[in-house]
Fold:
Amino acid sequence: MGLIMGLDPGLVVTGYGILDVTDDGRRVVAYGCVRTPAGSSQPARLEMLYRQLTAILERYHPEEVAVEQLFINRNASTAVSVGQARGVALLAAVQSGARIVEYTPLQVKLGITGFGRAEKKQVQYMVRAILGLPEMPRPDDVADALAVAICHCHYRAGGGL
Amino acid sequence: MGLIMGLDPGLVVTGYGILDVTDDGRRVVAYGCVRTPAGSSQPARLEMLYRQLTAILERYHPEEVAVEQLFINRNASTAVSVGQARGVALLAAVQSGARIVEYTPLQVKLGITGFGRAEKKQVQYMVRAILGLPEMPRPDDVADALAVAICHCHYRAGGGL
Structure:
């Protein structure tokens, strides 16, 4: 079935989690995050994010990359900054040949906890429990990336929502 | 002094304008826009934008790329979409080796019309007049890209704001 990558893009931290989907379940292959230094210019940080993420994509070559759709209620400048990082991350993913699948925050929460209004902590708790991780993946962006990857496994196995 | 590119990035249309700055003024080298088809997925459109823009950057190799800072009052999903396209455009620009310079909308209006509350039409009129273009550059995104390029020439010649 091949590898699945969950991705939670941001300019400061981009979380990723890679799962191997097999007939008898799924296995964690790798997880972590890409950071860019606050002191650099925004274009330079986008370039670093792109380069680091491309290296990870080339190393694992996931068949599918799952990302959460972005709904931002905060100020629009945050939306622009996150959008820029997300654009670069999606570009790296599509260039690697992966199929990109998007899920709403509701779908991710439902897929992980069975409850659409689950709190962030509950999602993280379930990510750790489902994958049998020795400890909570940190920072939050990594847990979120693993959550959307698990979510994609569930929906794919179940034939969609 | 080398070439300057003004850029107005968007997922649907990205306008660009390239000026040659010489000792005795500036010359329009090229202007136009890159479009991506509405029927394609967002990641695919980002990839097309990146590829087309990279080809233009490789062709003209501008020393500096000027973009307008983004201030969005509309809904945040627009901000995310524009942000994604902007991220990919900035990535292409920085990868080409160009220095990226950002201007606020106020700086662009002041630089072109001398009036910070100038209407869009007035900016477009002045772009055409300043560059001696035979007709109004269309669509708006192209005029906006030329406006930020002119603005950059002015501020650079004047030693900054």
Q: What stands out?
A: Residues 9 and 87 of chain B are 9 Å apart (CA to CA). The first helix of chain B runs from residue 42 to 60.
